[in-house]
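User: Could you check the structure of this?
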Amino acid sequence: MASTVTAFLEGRRIASGDRDEVTRLLAESHSQDQGSILVFDDASGRVTDLDYRGVAAGPAPRGAGRPRLGVQAREVTLLPRHWEWLADQPGGASATLRRLVDAARHEGRGERERKDAAYRFMQAACGDMAGYEDALRALYRSDEAGFRAAVRGWPEDVGRYIDRLLDADTQAKDGVACG
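Assistant: Sure, the predicted structure tokens are below.
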């Protein structure tokens, strides 16, 4: 599954969804003179860069795999004992690896990982907002009321994104959203 990202311009969410689609949308609709756009990886809360090269030319040609299904061939390096174990699994190595990845993704992120993702976003996007330090302290103390009080005056889109990063059940349900 492709990674999802969310883009902000001055505290307002301007796009969210699949990395490639958000890249295309931003390349088509936002110019550099509008201000500094910050793009965040939805899984980690980290600032991420988008590669705008060749966006106008359309998607890059796909390599080996099953492009209609979104399957891409990539290298996996394992020890011989790992390959032997994979070979004995029903469906072969690829099917087994897909099942293992899906199971790990289904388990979800733990509370600490969610808090760290929110912290990384807040550090990049909210450092100059009133109550920032109080919000961080409350976040790691698990003080919900103190956290809500500290972020009360922040832009709505910022607050919603922080909630999304902290929500254990959040999945990328949205397609590409703008504005």
